[in-house]
Protein 1
Amino acid sequence: MKDYKQIIASLLNKESGVAAEEINELIEIPPEKSMGDYALPCFFLAKALKKSPVMIAEDLKNKIESNEFSKIENKGPYLNFFVKSEDLIENVVSEILSNENYGSSNIGQGKTVTFDFSSTNIAKPFHIGHLRSTVIGNSLRNIFKFNGYNTVAINYLGDYGTQFGVMLAAYKLFGDKEKISQNPIKELLNLYVEYTKLQEEDESKKDDARAWFKKLEDGDKEAVELWTWFKEISLKEFNRVYKLLGIEFDSFDGEAFSSKFVDDVIKELREKDILVKSDGAEIIEFDDDNIPNVIIVKSNGTSTYIVRDIATALYRKRNYDFFKNIYVVGGEQKLHFTQLFAILQKMGYDFSKDCEHISFGLILLKDMRLSTRKGQVVFLEDVLNEAINKTMEIINQRDPNLENKEEISRQVGIGAVIFQDLYSNRIKDYTFDWEETLNFEGETGPYVQYSQARGVSILEKAGEIKKDVDFSKLSNEEEKFLAQDLYDFPEKVKLALEKREPSVIARHLVKIAKSFNKFYNTCHILSEIDEIKYPRLLLVEATVKVLRTGLGLLGISSPDKM
Ligand code: ARG
């Protein structure tokens, strides 16, 4: 495909002597179409050419000769370039239709990236607070894959820690196997909540919990069997949610798995003289005053969450030899990861620089708390099912005879929740709002999915499409604007990859969908004469392909009808 920025850069390199790469960086996309498709601010040449930017722009305009553009204009210090419409449309359409994976690259070839995401906790609810890690992690993984990386999706299960002592003690005291089997997480959560209440009144209950945790650590048969059962029934519930979301993991190696390596890690930390004794505990201090000390071994001898993470990082390097090791975890664990990476560096592991914490903001719910202690918790599964039901209601109003309504409601309802989550910059908090999420006309998943389905239905009605067409027959600006958005897609994918930011893609899909709808509402397609109909149909086909690819990168399906 033609690279217009590159063409401009080499034209100006000839005229000014400034390196093409440097010029390329400076080329802008003007905010208004009347100012051209690309613009070059000429300030940077003023020094070299000893003239005012306004004069430079004028000079250059007069000197440049190129038939790549329909118009080159100087406006003040800017040089504006107008791409030839038919040229652009032909370029982009033929590229999209001939390329299996338009927008992809192979820059990741031979490199492995591990993604630690979702990372739910056993015997605790998979609540709406986990949505972000789950969908951002999955989308980033798709984006990396699309760029040739070998990816490993890891659900670092929270299946270890003193809270399992509480679970075991609680189960022994008032657990009901039958009840738990029927409704595992809700019942296990009740046990946990009841027992922590009891602990507040009766100190000895804390000792019982500690004793059960010790048994678990020592491999006591009953403790391990119960723990394994908790894990099985929890995973069964979690997997229901992953299935709804269409997400698969390559590994469920969690904290219990890593706990096997904890003794080795502590030994290594001692040998490397990194541990400091403090009030019976062993801690790590950092050279950087901004990083607070961290406890590694508590005074009672148990090791902490971060030790398992050190062990995990070392294991991942050994086992996967990662190029990047990415953790998609909420902003509240920022300090934890800063400490973790600093410890790895202190231990002398150069790969600490390849570890990244991809943070994100909160989901705010009106009047709802996400605390598990109080037992008021919003289960993600309930939210997803609600989304499916609400979508079914909308479909029943819009098109009650739609075939395959169940499956389509699932795709659209789930897609809506995922899209809303990925639509804003990940670091921002957002408020979950049903009306906004499911609005078919808003900047939403259903809107993008619907635009795509509309395209599919046009193509179906059209039957076979003649490929040998003359794009110069297309002269509406809506066609050009749509082609331009499709042209920009690969660059947006690249940006999303570099910034670890799926929202770049989500936003661009809305832009494409809007341009498509304008095109569709302005330009007749099927009723036109062949000369116009076929090139327009090819543009529709290209649009459908890009929207589907983009939705796929976000982890959202594309129903043919809705
Ligand atoms: N299970 C943890 C939680 O729910 C998240 C784990 C994140 N990953 C990690 N390697 N620490 O908060």
Protein 2
Amino acid sequence: MDETALLAAEIAELKKHRNAVVLAHSYQVGDVQDIADFVGDSLGLSREAAATDADVIVFAGVNFMAETAAILNPTKTVLIPDPKAGCSLSDTVSARDVLRWRSEHPNGLVVSYVNTTAEVKALSDICVTSANAVKVVESLDRDRDLLFLPDMFLGEYVKQQTGREMDIWLGECHVHAGIGEQELSDRISSFPDAEFLIHPECGCGSSCLYLKPDAKIFSTEGMVNYAQSSSKKEFVVATEVGIIHRLNKKTYGKRFIPVKESAVCQYMKMNTLEKIRDSLRSNTHVVRVDDDIAAKARRAIDAMLAVV
Ligand code: 13P
Ligand code: SF4
């Protein structure tokens, strides 16, 4: 048995022993995706975390995702294999920033992308993911002021789609913000017949659509579903490169070209099979969210799950 197969076997044994599941985001390294019980986007992972009857959830993703799982499962043990797996986007907004906006807009609504800390979610009215942001915002009272945070590119996209006036927090993910007009136009000239799948967090997501008006804007799981049903054979994919492994696994006879090979999230890549094995073995690192914050954050997550 090679090293990977050995680790996979150890993880399978530990999972059985502890009644555990491994949930993994599509940006995880291929080996981690391959041993996971569920792989998906932020929405799918939140749903799965809310539904699981396992005693232990190992979250192969980043901190805000593991926190969401802990908020949805206060009686379960949620583990993150590497607690340094942060998110540059969630770091752009703090609870104090939200309180400041709220004091200036006493009747306002705060809509938070799930890429936020538990403290920010606790001060929000409703959460969104990239898969449901348009639908959630459409469901909200149009007469109230609205703050969309923290991703400005997703915010712009939602504003365009809904036609709703809103304040947009000027945050960005360093990986997606680096996918812009240049990367998109280079790929358009190299692959004129390919279909373009773009994540709404990308710098090219809303403002560069004039370059490729028929590009499809999707969450990571939306890309997988679309590629499975499309008759096209070649796709240019604008998001973190980990999704290519999943797209290849879930389709047959199709070619996926990353719009930018170096679009790699170093936080997502911190989880390894070894760290997952160790986290199950030694019960590390337990994700803890203060009870009061968790109860308030849960209201915002549940409000989202009730819409879609
Ligand atoms: P989705 O998988 O929900 O599209 O989110 C992308 C992302 O950047 C998560 O960190
Ligand atoms: Fe955060 Fe961007 Fe990494 Fe997603 S890809 S976890 S938004 S830094």
Protein 3
Amino acid sequence: TVAVVLFTRDLRLRDNPALRAALASADAVVPLFVRDDAIAATGYAVPNRQAFLADCLTDLDRQLRERGGRLVVRSGDVVEQVCSVLHETGATDVHMAADVSAYAQAREDRLRRALAAGRRRLHVHDRSVTVVAPGDITPAGKDHMAVFTPYFRRWATAPPREVLAAPRRVHVPAGVRSEPVPSREDVRGAAPGVGRGGESAGRARLAAWTRSGLDAYAERHDDLAADATSRLSAHLHFGTLSPVELVARARRRGGLGAEAFVRQLAWRDFHHQVLAARPAASRADYRPRGDRWRTEEQAGEEIEAWQQGRTGYPVVDAAMRQLLHEGWMHNRGRLLAASFLTKTCYVDWRVGARHFLSLLVDGDVANNQLNWQWTAGTGTDTRPNRVLNPLAQAARYDPDGAYVRRWVPELEGIAGRAVHAPWKLHGTGRAAPGYPAPVVGLADGLTRFRRARGG
Ligand code: FAD
């Protein structure tokens, strides 16, 4: 018998429930990845993620070959490609990981219908993309949890599933047609600082992080210059690392750092379960607040300055330039940059979310859209009208200004915290030529936002 494993956001051999189930149920397995036309058509397949994805596929193929198999790559409509592989191999069963976006849910429905019509079976495995399955933790009579803290309380006590070892051998039937596995060199236009993708690179990063970062995570994760977070987000997005395994390892390690890290992984699950129940929240306000956001016409200059890292607020600009250069941004940077756009400039969160998704290697429908909604106050934040002041944020999370000097070279000559308000240096001979004046006044922004929200 032959089974197909359709890899999606679970591009790993270790702790992969779909792969494990396929291997346990059939003599031969087709490890299939489809370069899906529908995803390309949405504009989601941007160079930074494509570069990382190519690494993931190259590494998956290499690891499969070490075990006697190989990766089969096809392009086109995912349902047509799966059906064509079933037809060519006589396979009867398809295994894949459960996922949450509107697109992923529609893909699953289409596959299920197409397979049922040919008397074949689709097996969808949860607790692969997330630690706890969406819908497993719900208040009575509801389909998801809308507040993080009570969600986390229950999430933290959910019985863990066993972490699965990688298979030793993978037997792939002969003669299955495959396109060449994409390689990173084929991708044009990725940012210079995009990290290496693939399970092997993910495991190396995980080992280094567990050795040298995890224990201090609780104290240091908000320090912008320390760069003391795991940087595992893209590996989690593409599933080159399993979130179930990460939680198990952190719990084994124990301590305050590990606890704080596990809590962040619970945030990831939290947003996934919101999106699974409310797929429209990727576009529409989860909790509408009657906003009449300034349009791209009204706020064009501010939006452009924000995207380019030239708002005149150094900490915002540093964060935005880190994104341009690395396709990644520190979480504290994401929070203050998103608050600046939505609350100080009063621009629609969708404008910011789109820009982030065009660059973030970890760009993720659940985490990105729902964190943007959280920051804009249209999501699950229980204090939706809080506004992060970039100067106060800078003083607290980049007290010495090192993060700003790293990313904003025009300001590298200004020592200490004075770097956060270069406009105060005019006339002192220390001003930074070429660095813009603030594009909007903080007090004006605050007044506009309070009026808009009726505060
Ligand atoms: P760590 O601090 O090491 O955290 C470990 C893991 O926990 C992360 O890799 C991530 O998977 C998860 N995590 C941490 N914080 C959050 C959070 N607030 N929400 C959900 N999961 C979290 N994360 C993405 O993975 N993709 C996105 O597209 C994304 N967009 C964001 C947009 C905005 C406006 C904001 C405020 C946050 C966004 N985040 C997103 C969440 C968070 O900023 C990143 O996950 C984190 O910065 C990634 O770096 P890290 O792996 O070093 O995180």
